[in-house]
Task: structure prediction
Amino acid sequence: MKKVEAIIKPFKLDEVKDALSEVGIQGMTVTEVKGFGRTGGKKEVYRGSAYVVDFVPKVKLEIVVPEAMVKEVIDAIEKSAKTGRIGDGKIFVMPIDEVVRIRTGERGEEAI
Result:
């Protein structure tokens, strides 16, 4: 099993959710986060003073999937979250050793 984490622009969440639903994803965790990448944030003007907004609002998706679905999930996220502009986000994939559904005690892929 693998955990796929994606950091995306907030307005792309519905498109990404629909794309993931089409490939069979039935659940995910969504968190509102802030961060910055290579650009280091953006400059804004407030009441005549320029300042840098260091942290840009983003949405983080966390999805645990069987290893066989990883490529499909990444492709769905990449296609639906892409705007072609700076700040489209990142996708991370990491191994998951165990999953337990607390209510039923199911383990492994059955618990996803």
In short: The chain has two helices and six strands. The beta strands are 2-8, 29-35, 42-46, 49-53, 56-65, 90-95. The chain has a mean pLDDT of 91. The chain has one domain: 2-111.
